[in-house]
From TrEMBL:
Alphabetized Pfam families for the sequence: Lipase_GDSL_2 (PF13472)
Keyword list, A-Z: Hydrolase
InterPro entries in the record: Ester_Hydrolysis_Enzymes (IPR051532), SGNH_hydro (IPR013830), SGNH_hydro_sf (IPR036514)
Biased composition (Basic and acidic residues): 349-361
Compositionally biased tracts (Basic residues): 314-327
UniProt GO MF annotations: hydrolase activity
Superkingdom as given in the UniProt entry: Bacteria
Keyword Hydrolase appears in the UniProt entry: yes
Disordered, as annotated region: 264-284, 297-361
Domain SGNH hydrolase-type esterase: 73-252
Protein name as catalogued: SGNH/GDSL hydrolase family protein
CDD domains xref list: FeeA_FeeB_like (cd01836)
Amino acid sequence: MGRARRARRIASKAAYGGGVTAASAVASAAAAYGLLRAEARIARRVVGTPFDTAPEDSGTYGHGFGDAVHLLVLGDSSARGMGADERSQTVGSIIATAVAALTGRPVQLTNVAVVGAQSADLDGQVDQALAAVPQPDVVVIMVGANDVTHRISRSTSVRHLAMAVRRLRESGAEVVVGTCPDLGTIRPLPQPLRLVARRYSRDLAAAQTVAVVEQGGRTVSLGDLIGPDFAERPAVMFSQDRFHPSPAGYARAASALLPSVLDALGQPTPDTGLAPDRRRGESVGPVAEAAVRAVRDPGTEVSATELHGSQVGHRGRWAVLRRRRRQPVPAEPAQPDPDSAPGVDDGDLDNRRASARADRA
């Protein structure tokens, strides 16, 4: 079964509260999750120094005139900023600072993300966020990694995310979701765990896109954005626990999310008003197909659109895939990795070959 078909099936099950699956699929999933559970014990023994907390980044950014832009951040440890040393290094802080500078308005950031959160925890986070800010302007959500590592049903994960997006859209907010990161980039995970984690996280990311777009939000692919850099410069892009992003890793993710946040706020960007450019890999098509392409294409945004005056075709919701222009994060000198010899890590080579096979699945 192709990834586009899997994404449609997962999102459909999420919309209708689950359903009956084939016995072979259940057995396959059980075997995969059993492997994840067994080898995750190995990963926990080799992951580096853990963190006690993450910086508190909620507050006002910028000193512009006019009403403040109300920015909410929801999700897990990546949204919280675990691995950052200072509040200015989190994704929320970077986006808030940039939005304040480019709009000339102050930005009020409210971050209710929780370290270790799963998609099911978004229900409570939305309650908390809307109690504090009843009418937010834009919401950034980053979630999914813990659903994979805790073996949560992908349809269950997607259902909670879709409900959160729907509630936030009903409040009048624009919603930008950074999809599940590619867990196949986590070097402490041994093979074949990395291959299993990669396939599950990419399938979840594609299904997240289908569900989010159908609820009126937009997504930005994060997995492939950070994957190559994390594989090539792990000492720079990973924090000291070798699992969460470093400040450089968060800056890389923020640089991908920022153009979509600006566009959602109506702030002109280099792409504003332009038709999709096929020379840059942009296109309009069924949302499930756009979702699969986004998983493979770093920093790609997927949002709803119309085609010939219609929002829906015979293969589902129409979506536009954009590769929004962003400023690259300056390269930092890589530090030697004490756990690998000079050259390319054999495990990474195996992982990349396995990734190519998984993409064709």
